[in-house]
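Renewal narrative, Specific Aim 1. Our central claim is that a sequence can be written position by position from structural information alone. The example that follows is taken directly from our test logs and has not been curated for this report. It begins with the structure tokens describing the chain, in the order in which they were read.
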């Protein structure tokens, strides 16, 4: 049976039934308390009652903190995930109890992220993380009554296909017309980036990335003990897809490693992956500003796409496209670590003019 007591401005209701733990909750009005009591008694009578105590007394902030302590620490991408969890904690929704969060709240957050200009893939990753937090609460932390509000909303469709390529140096050969000169300038973006880079560590990492096709996290985690300069091989014991792999080193990649100073750090590039991204983006911005200034001094309009929209991951894209001209598809997959050839094709974007040169000349 249910008992009601008024304490101050709140009505406290307690529902007792044999075979169940007492359920207690406070409300603004007695009518709300009576509706809640009838619902619980009905569920208990029908045998479908599940305690809402944990979900109604735990805030999203508390769940995020526990998730970081117990789940995030076991992930290889823990550093990046901590950053996303910190962003979740700053949301007003974090102070709400889990049981009060509805799908409409998730839909509003999704729309706000998209309106702020976030890519659909980024929004989808954030929603997936929130969804996993709710699922862990329900399946592993005994919040049996908790519904996952993320499951009930539509998800944005990610458009991960990118054909953005960058190159390290101008193409060889002649060409005196304006179109050819502009084309050669366009493929010289990395040269501009290296000029604008103030960090020697970042400069070496950029060259190494475009030569090895290694991921940002793999470069940041690479240790000297896993580098064999004699065999020209870098061993990656742990990668994104969970498998280890050996990466052959090109002559230029080998030259970068041979020129590095081992200052007591076990890592080849003593920098965190997220710091590498931030430093790279600052270099892109500086390189673009220098390019625009140079164009203004030469009284010519700047190319709207030059040094715009470049990400560190595009270096892996560029490297994969270059290596595709040297290796067969199955060999290329061994180098880049792609298990699915369809994923590899997302990174393989040869230039049409390069493919045209492979045709034999007419006799």
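The sequence written for that structure reads:
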């Amino acid at each position: 049976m249910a008992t009601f007591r008024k304490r101050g401005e709140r009505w406290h209701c307690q529902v007792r039934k044999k075979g169940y733990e007492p359920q207690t909750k406070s409300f603004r009005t007695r009518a709300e308390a009576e509706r809640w009591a009838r619902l619980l008694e009905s569920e208990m009578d029908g045998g479908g009652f599940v305690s809402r105590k944990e979900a109604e007394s735990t805030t999203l902030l508390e769940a995020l903190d526990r998730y970081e302590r117990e789940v995030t620490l076991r992930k290889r991408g823990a550093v990046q995930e901590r950053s996303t969890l910190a962003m979740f904690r700053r949301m007003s929704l974090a102070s709400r109890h889990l049981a009060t969060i509805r799908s409409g709240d998730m839909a509003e957050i999704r729309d706000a992220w998209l309106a702020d200009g976030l890519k659909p893939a980024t929004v989808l990753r954030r929603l997936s993380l929130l969804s996993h937090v709710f699922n862990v609460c329900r399946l592993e932390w005994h919040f049996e009554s908790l519904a996952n509000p993320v499951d009930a909303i539509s998800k944005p469709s990610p458009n991960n296909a990118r054909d953005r390529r960058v190159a390290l140096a101008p193409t060889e050969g002649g060409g005196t017309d304006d179109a050819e000169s502009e084309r050669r300038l366009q493929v010289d973006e990395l040269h501009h980036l290296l000029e604008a880079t103030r960090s020697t560590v970042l400069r070496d990492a950029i060259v190494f990335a475009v030569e090895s096709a290694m991921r940002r996290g793999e470069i940041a985690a690479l240790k000297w003990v896993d580098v064999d300069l004699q065999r020209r091989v870098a061993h990656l014991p742990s990668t994104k897809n969970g498998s280890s792999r050996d990466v052959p080193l090109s002559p230029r990649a080998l030259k970068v490693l041979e020129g590095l100073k081992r200052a007591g750090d076990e890592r080849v590039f003593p920098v965190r992956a997220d710091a590498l991204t931030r430093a790279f983006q600052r270099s892109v911005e500086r390189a673009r500003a220098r390019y625009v200034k140079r164009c203004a001094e030469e009284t010519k309009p700047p190319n709207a796409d030059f040094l715009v929209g470049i990400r560190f991951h595009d270096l892996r894209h560029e490297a994969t496209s270059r290596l595709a001209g040297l290796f067969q598809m199955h060999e290329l997959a061994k180098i880049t670590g792609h298990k699915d050839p369809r994923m590899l094709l997302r990174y393989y974007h040869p230039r049409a003019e390069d493919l045209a040169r492979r045709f034999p000349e007419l006799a």
